[in-house]
Amino acid sequence: MSTRVGILVSGRGSNMVSLIEAEKAGKLGGAEVALVISDVGDALALEKARERGVEAIHIQMEAEKARLTENDEERMIAELDERGVNLVCLAGFMRVLCHRMLPGYTGKMMNIHPSLLPSFPGLEVQRKALEYGVRYSGCTVHFVTEDVDCGPIIIQAVVPILQDDTPDELSARILKQEHRIYPQAVAWYAQGKLRVEGRRVFVEGGYSWEEG
Ligand code: GAR
Q1: Is 142 a catalytic residue?
Q2: 169-177, long-range: CB < 8 A, 24+ apart
Q3: What pLDDT digit, counting tens, does each position of 22-55 carry?
Q4: Does the C-beta of 170 come closer than 6 Å to ligand 1?
């Protein structure tokens, strides 16, 4: 079965672009980006997706806080189902899923997070890593489970933290790696190479240090 990807976004969408461009370059393992959904009407991501020929829609959520309502999730599921989406990628989607999407997409939904999980879950994590004084940070692609930022880890990349870094400089260094590892994770998935055992995700054929 071919992999049809739905990407959920809230902002500028640079990770979304990296997935779309990887598909165009034949580097997404045969997966196809079928739909982009934003909870923010004027998110730059919507424009960037359309410019690249990908259908992109805004869904006005009824939830005022991060946690979506059951109805919000139902509406997203309906749109995803209509396009035959069988892999959901969260890419800077600043909402918390807690209803039907979680059981419905177990093992079929990924998220990218700008820290080396399980260190620094949550928000503003680049600043928190700097303030904590860790010497390395990075990014993580993981399967989404009920607990936020806690699911089985598919791939990570490490970046150094330099003494004079600002949160913006560190974010940019991490983002560069995000754009590399997210397409890799989706390609592995689309090629049927991922197997989850408990917390561990095994990649068929293994992976090199450079790949993550
Ligand atoms: C990325 O750094 C992503 O890892 C982060 O938001 C940014 C979105 O940028 N996601 C989270 O913090 C999720 N908890 P983008 O819109 O340019 O891809």
Answers
A1: no
A2: 170/126, 170/129, 170/130, 170/137, 171/114, 171/126, 174/114, 174/115, 174/126, 174/137, 174/138, 174/139, 175/14, 175/114, 177/138, 177/139
A3: 999 999 999 999 999 999 999 999 999 999 999 9
A4: no
